[in-house]
Amino acid sequence: MDRVLLIEDDDIIGEMICMYLKEEEFVVLRSHNGQEGLAALHDFKPDLILLDLILPDFEGTDLCNSLRNITPVPIIIISSNARVSEKIEAFTVGADDYLCKPFSMHEMKARIQALLRRFKQTHPSDIQQVPALQEVTVPPMDLNINIEKRTLYVRGESVEMTFSEFELIRLLFENPERVYRREDLINALRGFDSYINDRAIDVHITNLRRKIEVNPKEPKFIKTVWGVGYKFVL
Fold first, then answer.
1. pLDDT tens per residue, range 57-105
2. What DSSP designation does 195 have?
3. How many Cα atoms within 13 Å fall on the side-chain side of residue 24?
């Protein structure tokens, strides 16, 4: 039976896919994040990978690129993002197919079978050939923000934030290199924080730097633009 590795953190979608594929006589292993997926790659030896683009510890396209450098097996991206630019990026980093949520389970099965059939014809000697585990472990990204789930991971570790801190880092993260005056940040947070002022902005920035920077006194991400305000640098 063909083996499918599913890397998906959403429990409802993950369970639905697992149940359906098992009923269709696939062997399925689900990983809840990127690190689990990379670790499972060696022991499970999948014939195909289903990869969600939104994960708690990796950007999906970065993980797809890492997986493609490790294994030649087909990779199908599953994502709620239907933008053409997102699809192009996924194919550029090694994806073989792209399914937009919500999708038909029957269509998913048909695409899996088509990719497996093509792969087995063109790579008969590569099936289930995966390097040793020590070669597949890659470090997590320095900073990973999930806007929809309001989570922030710093070097693979979850970071707790106040509501105002997350709104502030979200604004900066979504507009890299843009210089924000303190007044701009105050106006952006008004309505969320009734006590926001110049001093509060500086306190939030200081707290964020303590949480995300290796050295808060020499910040890598949140830079001070002297005499103006702050900007976020990727």
1. 887 788 898 898 888 999 999 998 888 888 998 999 899 999 998 889 9
2. T
3. 19
Is residue 91 packed enough to be buried (19+ CB in 10 Å), middle (13-18) or exposed (0-12)?
middle
Query: Residue 154 forms beta bridges with which residues?
Result: 143, 157
Per-chain mean pLDDT for the chain: 85
Strands (E), the chain: 3-7, 27-31, 48-52, 75-79, 97-100, 143-146, 151-154, 157-158, 180-181, 222-225, 229-232
Residue 146: how many CB atoms within 10 A of its CB? 15
Question: Tokens in use for 59?
Answer: 């950007």
The residue whose two tokens read 């896919």 is 17
Q: Is 173 helix (H, G, I), strand (E, B) or coil?
A: helix
